[in-house]
């Protein structure tokens, strides 16, 4: 049903009909799969790079100015690429790894490549938030750098890390929708093929509902968890 | 009674270079602290007190000079040896610097874990220490739920749990109200009396020094301008800072006497 020949109310009504939703569960699954896998990859590498950036910062635990400057520059370069261009750039890489340049797995590579640098920067800014005195206290106690990172730095900034991760997961979700244009499947694929190319606005609306619900859900969980941690620590 | 010097600092220099300018923070510090005493260092903000404190456990790298602590040449230690040596030096901070992610118990246990003390011993030692500082009923809560005085008790417990020979107190009572300050000073005194631990009290609070220290030094623009018995310096100051402090102190004293408060 299209807005071209039906009223808004009718399109909305149609967008809620089971006929439309029965075709959506598969794409929802694909979207969730892409989001979860990409987010996990982003979490691991983003954390790692974020920690390295913080540690090698000129004011950090192991100041390495050259490495910090170079890695910062690379990250900035990667971050200046719009997501769409990153997807196009990663097509040959995906073909190399999976043997095909389309599909959910292929797009996960592009999503990770685009979101890891972003999340690394978010991790870095979270970690830099820690009060310097805590690090100093840990050093005065005689902790080595490994303990300081894993027993002080990460636990102390955990609520902020979780909030940053929440924002990044939402960014991953929005990128999966974009990836739909490049054969990744999922909600974005439905929105483009039916909503854009065939004017089936009821399907487009359904996609919008799903995305809104997913974003609310992700943000809600993130807020809840980080708030719960702050509560346990009696900080709010 | 002759005591032996525990901390010996010789001709210590440290400069910072903010925005291309040279800032001499420590300009030839000579200092001797005897074993088992509570030694006070007083100075205005910017006199270099904190830098001096942080040079002792090498949180700050000094430019030249020597620091000897209990016969160990601190500045000659390798990185590994330094970490080990730090288990033997406790430090207390103005802002407590407790770890919010850990409970009080975990905060106090942390230095023991870092010193690789066996688990069973850790528990025993944490309970012992928390009893000494009066925190046995707070072990399960996080520092966020504590008052300033209680937080500093955790800070002190964390500093003494490894049975160090030496404690650096960097403005430990400066963020506390007068009553709490007295309680914390009493606690430090008690710890000093019970375990014979040497305490270096760095502060800008006259009352604190007068209340707890036997000997003191005045730090002025990166130099020790006078040192000796607290009584002598307050009665017969020889330096600008000493004079000013003594004057302020006499003023305060007359006010406090009429109010019946103060230390």
Could you please describe the fold and organization of this structure?
The complex is a heterodimer of chains A (about 240) and B (about 260). By secondary structure, chain A is mainly alpha-helical. Chain A has a single domain (about 10-230), classed as MetI-like (MetI-like fold). In chain A, about 80% of the residues lie in helices and about 0% in strands. The longest helix of chain A is centred in the first third of the chain and has 32 residues, at about 25-55. Chain A starts with 7 loop residues before the first helix and ends with a helix. The mean pLDDT of chain A is about 95. Chain B is an alpha/beta fold and about 260 residues long. Chain B folds into two domains: about 1-90 and about 165-180 and about 195-263, Rossmann fold; about 100-165, no CATH class. Helices cover about 40% and strands about 25% of the residues of chain B. In chain B, helix 3 crosses helix 4 (about 120-135), helix 4 crosses helix 5 and helix 5 packs parallel to helix 6 (about 180-195). Chain B is globular and about 50 Å long.
What would the keywords be for this entry?
heterodimer, A: 236 residues, mainly alpha, MetI-like fold, B: 263 residues, alpha/beta, Rossmann fold, 2 domains, six-stranded mixed sheet, four-stranded antiparallel sheet, 9 helices, 40% helix
Please work out how many helical segments of chain B DSSP would assign. 9
CATH-defined architecture of the largest domain in chain B: 3-Layer(aba) Sandwich
Structural class of chain A comes to mainly alpha
Domains of chain B, number: 2
Shape of chain B: globular
- Please give the number of β-strands of chain A: 0
Main sheet specs of chain A: none
Average predicted confidence as pLDDT of chain A: 94
What is the CATH H-level superfamily of chain A?
A: MetI-like
Number of helices of chain A: 11
Using only C-alpha atoms, the radius of gyration of chain B works out to 19 Å
User: CATH superfamily name of the largest domain in chain B?
Assistant: P-loop containing nucleotide triphosphate hydrolases
Q: So what's the CATH class of chain A?
A: Mainly Alpha
Strand order of the largest sheet of chain B: 6-7-8-3-9-10
Integer count of domains of chain A: 1
- Rg estimate of chain A, integer Å: 21 Å
The helix/strand class of chain B is alpha/beta
| End-to-end gap of chain B | 28 Å
CATH topology of chain A: MetI-like fold
Largest sheet of chain B: 6 strands, mixed
Look at the structure and give the CATH class of the largest domain in chain B: Alpha Beta
């Amino acid at each position: 049903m299209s807005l071209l020949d039906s009223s808004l109310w009718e399109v909305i009504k149609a967008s809620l009909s089971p006929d439309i939703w029965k075709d959506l569960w598969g794409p929802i699954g694909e979207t969730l799969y892409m989001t979860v896998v990409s987010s996990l990859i982003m979490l691991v590498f983003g954390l790692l790079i974020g920690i390295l950036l913080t540690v090698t910062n000129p004011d950090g635990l192991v100041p390495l100015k050259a490495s910090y400057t170079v890695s910062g520059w690379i990250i900035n370069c990667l971050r200046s690429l719009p997501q769409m261009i990153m997807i196009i750039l990663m097509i040959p890489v995906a073909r190399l790894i999976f043997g095909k340049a389309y599909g959910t797995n292929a797009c996960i590579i592009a999503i990770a490549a685009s979101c890891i640098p972003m999340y690394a920067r978010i991790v870095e800014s979270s970690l830099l938030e820690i009060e310097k005195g805590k690090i100093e206290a840990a050093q005065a106690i005689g902790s080595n750098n490994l303990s300081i990172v894993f027993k002080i730095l990460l636990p102390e900034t955990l609520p902020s890390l979780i909030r940053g991760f929440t924002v990044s997961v939402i960014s991953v979700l929005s990128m999966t929708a974009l990836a739909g244009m490049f054969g990744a499947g999922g909600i974005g694929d439905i929105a483009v093929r039916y909503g854009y190319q065939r004017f089936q606005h009821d399907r487009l609306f359904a996609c919008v509902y799903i995305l809104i619900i997913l974003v609310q859900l992700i943000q809600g969980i993130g807020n809840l968890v980080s708030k719960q941690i702050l509560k346990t620590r009696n900080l709010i | 009674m002759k005591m032996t010097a525990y901390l010996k600092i010789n001709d210590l220099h440290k400069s910072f270079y903010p925005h291309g300018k040279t800032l001499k923070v420590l300009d030839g510090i000579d200092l001797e602290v005897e074993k088992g005493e509570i030694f006070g260092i007083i100075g205005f903000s910017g006199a270099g007190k904190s830098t001096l404190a942080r040079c002792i456990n090498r949180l700050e790298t000094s430019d030249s000079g020597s620091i000897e602590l209990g016969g160990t040449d601190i500045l000659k230690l390798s990185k590994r040896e330094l970490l080990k040596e730090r288990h033997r030096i406790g430090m207390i901070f103005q802002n407590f610097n407790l770890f919010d992610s850990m409970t009080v118990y975990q905060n106090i246990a942390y230095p023991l874990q870092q010193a690789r003390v066996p688990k069973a011993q850790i528990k025993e030692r944490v309970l012992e220490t928390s009893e000494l500082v009066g925190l046995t009923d707070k072990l399960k809560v996080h520092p966020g739920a504590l008052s300033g005085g209680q937080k500093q008790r955790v800070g002190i417990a964390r500093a003494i749990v490894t049975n160090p020979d030496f404690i650096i107190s960097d403005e430990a009572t400066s963020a506390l109200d007068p009553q709490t300050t007295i309680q914390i000073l009493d606690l430090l005194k008690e710890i000093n009396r019970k375990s014979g631990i040497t305490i270096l009290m760095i502060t800008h609070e006259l009352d604190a020094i007068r209340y707890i220290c036997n000997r003191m030094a005045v730090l002025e623009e990166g130099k020790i301008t006078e040192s000796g018995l607290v009584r002598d310096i307050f009665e017969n100051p020889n330096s600008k800072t000493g004079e000013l402090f003594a004057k302020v102190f006499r003023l305060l004293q007359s006010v406090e006497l009429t109010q019946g408060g103060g230390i």
